[in-house]
């Protein structure tokens, strides 16, 4: 989503036309985001306000992917959560109970309100045996005033304090791609991954067996591509140039 269709509070030029062309041609698509703060319905409203005609069913967040993963591992379990409504609602939707008493999992996601006491509590619960899950490994995120620490940075703190490694569900874990393909009821051979980050979007698409398209409207710059040991199938300036 970010860097491909939108940049902050602005629409990438041509993104609305790209989505309209996908819809008009009856192509199935999902808009992926590693950010776990907002629910798909909240993101639908945000994107529609910006001019993208999408619905919540088109939006797949790392929070939803994390909830589906936990439900597959331990149905109707319990979790202590550091995160926002997008993560909490996704866990409730799969039957999870949020608790601080002997939870099965400690789950960490994006938040702008990290609290020292809750971080301390998470560390103690992991020490006590709770399994450690995180929605995504992104260490920083964008804001109007510059970069801000993201989930990966907080997770590193908890990992250091506990000696336990978190399992990240979101990109670049191919698991998120595979569950997205399952939701689309499609095979990777018939699917294209469009992204702006070589280290997450493109490598995940490659490892899942998809054709990949790097757009230059986000994080990765053209001169940086040769630094990676893998390459996208195609490189375009923006989604406006992608022919259907």
Write the layout of secondary structure elements.
Blueprint: E1 6-7, E2 10-11, H1 15-24, E3 31-33, H2 40-50, E4 59-61, H3 62-73, E5 78-82, H4 85-93, E6 97-98, E7 105-108, H5 116-127, E8 131-134, E9 140-141, E10 148-149, H6 151-162, E11 167-168, H7 174-184, E12 192-195, H8 198-207, E13 211-215, E14 234-236
Parallel strand pairs: 3-4, 5-6, 5-7, 7-8, 8-11, 12-13, 13-14
Antiparallel strand pairs: 1-2, 9-10
Key phrases:
Rossmann fold; alpha/beta; 8 helices; 244 residues
Please provide a brief summary of the model.
By secondary structure, this protein is of the alpha/beta class. The chain has two domains: 6-61 and 171-241, Rossmann fold (3-Layer(aba) Sandwich); 63-168, HAD superfamily/HAD-like (Rossmann fold), CATH 3.40.50.
Describe this structure as you would to a colleague.
The chain has 244 residues and is an alpha/beta fold. It folds into 2 domains: 6-61 and 171-241, 3-Layer(aba) Sandwich (Rossmann fold); 63-168, Rossmann fold (3-Layer(aba) Sandwich), CATH 3.40.50.1000. It is built from 8 helices and 14 strands. A 5-stranded parallel β-sheet has the order 6-5-7-8-11, with helices on both faces. A 3-stranded parallel β-sheet has the order 12-13-14, covered by helices on one side. The protein has a two-stranded antiparallel ribbon with strand order 1-2. A hairpin with a 6-residue loop joins strand 9 (140-141) and strand 10 (148-149). The longest helix has 12 residues, at 62-73. The radius of gyration is 18 Å and the shape is globular. The model has no long low-confidence stretch (mean pLDDT 94).
């Amino acid at each position: 989503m970010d860097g491909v269709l939108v940049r902050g509070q602005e629409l990438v030029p041509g993104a609305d036309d790209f989505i309209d062309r996908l819809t008009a041609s009856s192509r199935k698509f999902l808009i992926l985001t590693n950010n776990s703060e907002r629910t798909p319905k909240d993101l639908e409203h945000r994107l529609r306000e910006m001019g993208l005609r999408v619905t919540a069913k088109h939006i797949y967040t790392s929070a939803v992917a994390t909830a589906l993963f936990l439900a597959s591992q331990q149905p109707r379990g319990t979790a202590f959560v550091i995160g926002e409504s997008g993560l909490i609602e996704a866990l409730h939707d799969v039957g999870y109970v949020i608790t601080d008493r002997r939870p099965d999992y400690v789950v960490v996601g994006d938040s702008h309100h990290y609290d020292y006491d809750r971080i301390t509590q998470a560390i103690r619960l992991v020490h006590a045996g709770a399994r450690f899950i995180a929605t995504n490994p992104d260490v920083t995120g964008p804001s109007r005033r510059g970069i801000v620490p993201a989930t990966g940075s907080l997770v590193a703190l908890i990992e250091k304090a506990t000696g336990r490694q978190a399992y990240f569900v979101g990109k670049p874990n191919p698991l998120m791609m595979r569950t997205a393909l399952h939701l689309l009821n499609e095979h990777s051979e018939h699917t294209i991954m469009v992204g702006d980050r070589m280290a997450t979007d493109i490598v995940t698409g490659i490892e899942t067996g998809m054709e990949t398209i790097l757009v230059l409207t986000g994080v990765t710059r053209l001169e940086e591509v040769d630094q990676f040991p893998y390459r996208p199938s195609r490189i375009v300036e923006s989604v406006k140039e992608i022919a259907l």
